Amino acid sequence: MATTVEAVNKMVSDGAQKVTQVNAESAKTYSVHHILAHSYLFYFVAFLLGMFFDFMFPLELFSQYDLSILGIVFLAVGTVLVVWAQRSTMHLKRENMTKDTFCNGPYRYTRSPTNYGIFLSLLGFGFIMNASFIIIFSCISLLVTKFIFIKKEEEILTSKYGAPYVEYKSSVKF
């Protein structure tokens, strides 16, 4: 009977340790996704503010079709960049991680391709619509995202993945 009780206690103890480990891993994963969600939300709010100010105080920066073509190119490149970044992280191998693990798709050129893609899309939309405040707020949101959200995200990824991520950061500067 004593061995049965000890066995049950050991199973409960082992289960509690596993739950604690899973919760710690989930918290780290949630933290990165939480920060990413906030950065994307910041872009969205900046876009809405830009639309509001452009509606209230319309300012034309250029003649009707001067930069519309550039806007279409930015919008297309930004959209492709976001889709490419999301697809390249779907099958990330989490075991035996090295610097090369992080160098998939656009991540071999930039550490934050989704953020840059959203920025290019918003900027392109601003050029297409000749919306000066959308252009201004897009630039502001890129700076805020770069120096606040991406900085926090990289701190979490460094603590989560350690040396392989630090090596990746040193090899991919942008």
In short:
The chain has 174 residues and is mostly helical. It is built from 5 helices and no strands.
Features:
single chain; about 170 residues; Four Helix Bundle (Hemerythrin (Met), subunit A)
Label the overall shape.
elongated
Number of separate structural domains? 1
**DSSP summary: helix tally:** 5
As for the CATH topology, it is Four Helix Bundle (Hemerythrin (Met), subunit A)
| Strand residues, percent | under 5%
Give, in order, the helices and strands.
Answer: HHHHH
Helix content range: over 70%
Low-confidence stretches: 11-28
| Category by helix and strand content | mainly alpha
Largest beta-sheet details: none
What would you note in describing this structure?
It contains five helices and no strands. The protein has 174 residues and is mainly α. It has a single domain, classed as Four Helix Bundle (Hemerythrin (Met), subunit A), CATH 1.20.120.1630. The protein is elongated and about 55 Å long.
Explain the layout of strands and helices.
Blueprint: H1 2-56, H2 68-88, H3 113-129, H4 132-161, H5 163-171
Helix pairs in contact: 1-3, 1-4, 2-3, 3-4
